[in-house]
From TrEMBL:
PANTHER family: GUANYLATE CYCLASE SOLUBLE SUBUNIT BETA-2, SOLUBLE GUANYLATE CYCLASE GCY-32-RELATED. SUPFAM superfamilies: Ligand-binding domain in the NO signalling and Golgi transport (SSF111126). Residues 2-160 form the Heme NO-binding domain. This is Heme NO-binding domain-containing protein.
């Protein structure tokens, strides 16, 4: 997993819960990196799982809800760091449906060894989208949060339903209906 995911996560934890919480969740975890991350480095996903688990235990906020909040934070990083990417789209459905064919291609230019989830467009209309998410990492709530922020970016709203196809969350269907 790319280091930017870790550095931004710890920035969010510090912003929302304080530097003491950052230190606490790092200390509670068994991290090969010892909690030292660079945005361009690559780290084990198990480290993110440990940090999320300990943050959840210390805050009584579910991991899914933490991932939603983190996705909102991460979207702002994308807005600030890559405004040109977002400017190429005029509509949230268009943007979300192009994750695999455009956005992930651009991400791989910056991070060639990034392990990204797969998004398969099953159905698409002007106001709706059905996507299948596949990932060994089961971070579908991170994807859901990014989708929510995509609609907000375009001053729009949507009803997004998440259906687990595999109980472990590695395959999920998103049913998106623009309001």
């Amino acid at each position: 997993m790319k280091g930017i995911v870790f550095t931004e996560f710890l920035d969010l934890v510090e912003e929302k819960f304080g530097i003491e919480m950052v230190d606490k969740i790092i200390s509670q975890s068994t991290l090969e990196s010892e909690g030292i991350y660079t945005s361009i480095g690559t780290y084990s996903f198990s480290e993110m799982l440990q940090l999320l688990k300990h943050l959840s235990e210390n805050t009584n906020i579910s991991i899914d809800n933490l991932l939603l909040v983190y996705a909102e934070h991460f979207f702002s990083v994308i807005e600030n760091s890559y405004p040109g990417l977002l400017a190429t789209y005029k509509d949230p459905i268009e943007m979300i449906s192009s994750i695999e064919d455009h956005i992930h291609i651009e991400v791989r230019k910056i991070y060639p060894d990034a392990e990204l989830p797969t998004f398969i467009v099953e159905e698409k209309t002007e106001d709706s989208l059905v996507l299948i998410y596949k990932s060994s990492r089961a971070m579908h709530h991170f994807g859901l949060g990014l989708m929510n922020k995509t609609f907000a970016h375009f001053n729009s709203t949507a009803n997004i339903v998440l259906e687990k196809i595999k109980e472990d969350g590695t395959v999920v269907k998103f049913l998106i209906n623009k309001n």
